[in-house]
Every structure is written in structure tokens, then in C-alpha cells.
Design goal:
Blueprint lengths: L2 H7 L6 E4 L3 H12 L4 E4 L7 H5 L3 E2 L3 H6 L3 E4 L4 H8 L8 E4 L5 H13 L3 E8 L13 E6 L1 H11 L4 E4 L6 H27 L6 H15 L2 H11 L10 H18 L7 H14 L9 H6 L1
Parallel strand pairs: 1-2, 1-4, 2-3, 4-5, 5-6, 7-8
Antiparallel strand pairs: 6-7
Helix pairs in contact: 8-9, 11-12
């Protein structure tokens, strides 16, 4: 839709206020404007708002003025502290706050309580996308939401404009928790990929030929997460085991020796292997699979 057509359409669309025009905020603002939503923006550095003023957005001079502009107020700032700072002076009465800034579950719960005490409903969000995926439904990007179910229902169509929506419960900390759990899993995968490339780094192996093998192997292995979830729910760690803990601990010695032969640090490899060894040593669950490692982490 052109910006002119979007403006004509905007009478029918819910107004949005957006605080924060960094890389992500800019992508969000673009998506709502393109879809014809009347938009009020605020950014600490006002120069970042200028392109949106030229496209018909209202630019607020202060965060408080932006919050006053309408019911739905979305925040996409750097971190928890910048959100607290921006909302400090604002009158939140009757507002629906949607915080898309990455933060911790505890801070989200605390912010929800304080927002409620100041007369606002609160939704926290965790964005599972990078800016180029925003406003592109086929990119697969989405946002976890948690907190006020009523606020989510009231705004779900507007919130679905920049990215898909996944509401994960009334607990305002759950969106952040889902977000961080997925990101943490991602870094585990990146860690394994890093170690694998280190193993072949000094050999006559083309990294670009190796990468598809890595991707295919990880893709084949990752569905093990479903089996783990089933075992956590059923408590049955013994049925249908195809790769026992005892076998994996025995086999992992080869992984460590190979790293040493290749002159590669085992720093990224050994933390998980050590947990498997400990589980076998202390628990004697050799014929089971490795899902009980989770219990070693949570105590
Ligand atoms: P940027 O660094 O591009 O932008 C940060 C924004 O926060 C700017 O608008 C900046 O304002 C503002 N800001 C920083 N400090 C303060 C403060 N003390 N008071 C008021 N405003 C402040 O970050 P992104 O836009 O990329 O990220 C925003 C959020 O989105 C983060 O929480 C990030 O984790 C999350 N996110 C980002 C993704 C990405 O790939 N970019 C992916 C998923 C989530 P100013 O212009 O004045 O400096």
C-alpha cells in the first residue's frame, strides 16, 4: 500500500503509539504506517523520528506526551532501565502498555505490577525476529506475548501487523522467559557449530562444503527436543532409548581426544559432556537417555 492510500485507510485502523526508533523500533513503525495505522512516535534522539514525520506520523516531544496520545502504547527501547526511565513521568491511566524491549521475566513481572498500580494494563513481548523480518509475514518472525489476556485480545489484530503473535499466558514474565529460553538454546547450537568449524579449520576441508552437512545433521537431531519434553512429562526415561547415557559417555571420550589431536580447545565441548558423566557417576542411569541432565541444572 502507498503512504497516501495508507493515510486514507487510517481512519479505520487502531492508533498506535511507539516509543523507541532504533533498528527494531524503526521496522515496527514502518510496518504500522505501511498498514495504515495512525502512529505517534517518540525517540530520545528526535532526529530518528524525522522520516516518520514526513510519512504522516505524529512526533511527540517527550515520552509522557507520546503516552498521552492514545490507548495502545508500545515500547521498543534498549533495555529494562531505558523503559523504566521513559515511563517514569508518564501518566499511565487507561493505557495498554506493550513492552517489546528484551528484558528478564522478573523485571516484566515487576513492571506489570507497577503498571497496574498506575492504572494501566500490561503486556510483555519477546521478539523472535530481526528487523528485516518485521512486516514480512512469510519471514516466519513472531512475538511472544504474556500478561493481560484482555489487552492481548483487544489489540491482537494491531499487534499482528509487524509479526506473528504467540500469547503464552497471563504471567507477565512468560514472554521474556520463552524468549530467553529460545535464545539460550540458539547459543548452545552456535557453540556446537563453532567447535565443529574449529575442528576442521586447519584441514583441507572447504567450510562451505562442510556447512550443509552441519545444517542437515543438526536439523535431523533437533527433534530430540520432543522426546525430552515427553520424558519430562511422563517421568519415563527408560522406554525406547536408542542412545543410552552409558554409550554417550563412553563415546564422548573420542570427541575430547579428537579435539586434542586437532589442537582445538575443548572449552565449548566439555560442559555438557561433564554433566552427562556426572549423571552416570552419581545417578547410575546408564540405560536411560540424557534428559535427566536437566535436573542436574535446576538442582
Ligand atoms: P537500538 O540500539 O537500535 O535502539 C535502541 C533504542 O533505545 C533507540 O531508540 C535509543 O534511543 C533507545 N534508548 C536507549 N537508551 C535509552 C534511554 N536511556 N532512554 C530512552 N531511550 C533509550 O536497538 P534495537 O532497536 O535493535 O533493539 C530494541 C529492542 O529490541 C532491544 O531490547 C532488543 O533486544 C530488541 N530486539 C532487537 C532485535 C534486533 O535484531 N535488532 C531482535 C529482537 C529483539 P536513541 O536513538 O536516542 O539512542
Amino acid at each position: 500500500m502507498s503512504d497516501n492510500a495508507a493515510r486514507e485507510d487510517s481512519a479505520h485502523k487502531e492508533p498506535v503509539t511507539l516509543l523507541g526508533l532504533g533498528a527494531m523500533g524503526t521496522a515496527l513503525a514502518d510496518a504500522w504506517l505501511t498498514a495504515g495505522h495512525p502512529l505517534t512516535v517518540w525517540n530520545r534522539n528526535p532526529r530518528r523520528a524525522e522520516p516518520f514525520a514526513a510519512r504522516g506520523a505524529t512526533v511527540a516531544a517527550t515520552a509522557g506526551e507520546a503516552v498521552a496520545a492514545g490507548r495502545l502504547v508500545v515500547l521498543c527501547l534498549l533495555d529494562d532501565d531505558s523503559v523504566d526511565e521513559a515511563l517514569d513521568e508518564a501518566d499511565l491511566t487507561g493505557r495498554d502498555l506493550v513492552n517489546l524491549t528484551t528484558g528478564t521475566p522478573l523485571r516484566a513481572r515487576d513492571r506489570a505490577a507497577r503498571a497496574q498500580a498506575r492504572g494501566a494494563r500490561f503486556l510483555d513481548g519477546g521478539i523472535m525476529a530481526v528487523p528485516p523480518m518485521i512486516g514480512i509475514p512469510e519471514s516466519g518472525g513472531y512475538v511472544f506475548y504474556s500478561g493481560s489476556a484482555a489487552a492481548f485480545e483487544d489489540h491482537r489484530h494491531t499487534l499482528a501487523v509487524p509479526a506473528g503473535t504467540r500469547y503464552v499466558g497471563e504471567d507477565p514474565g512468560f514472554a521474556a522467559l520463552h524468549d530467553v529460553a529460545l535464545l539460550s538454546a540458539m547459543y548452545g547450537a552456535f557453540s556446537g557449530i563453532t567447535h565443529a568449524f574449529a575442528l576442521i579449520r586447519r584441514e583441507d576441508i572447504d567450510p562451505e562444503g562442510f556447512a550443509p552437512l552441519l545444517v542437515d545433521w543438526l536439523t535431523a537431531m533437533v527433534p530430540a527436543a520432543h522426546t525430552t519434553a515427553e520424558r519430562l512429562n511422563s517421568g519415563d526415561h527408560a522406554s525406547g532409548v536408542v542412545s543410552s547415557l552409558a554409550m554417550q559417555v563412553a563415546g564422548s571420550a573420542t570427541l575430547v581426544r579428537t579435539a586434542e589431536e586437532q589442537g582445538v580447545s575443548t572449552a565449548l565441548l566439555t560442559p555438557y559432556l561433564h554433566l552427562m558423566e556426572r549423571l552416570l557417576r552419581e545417578g547410575g542411569h546408564g540405560e536411560e537417555d540424557t534428559a535427566r541432565v536437566i535436573d542436574l541444572l535446576v538442582g
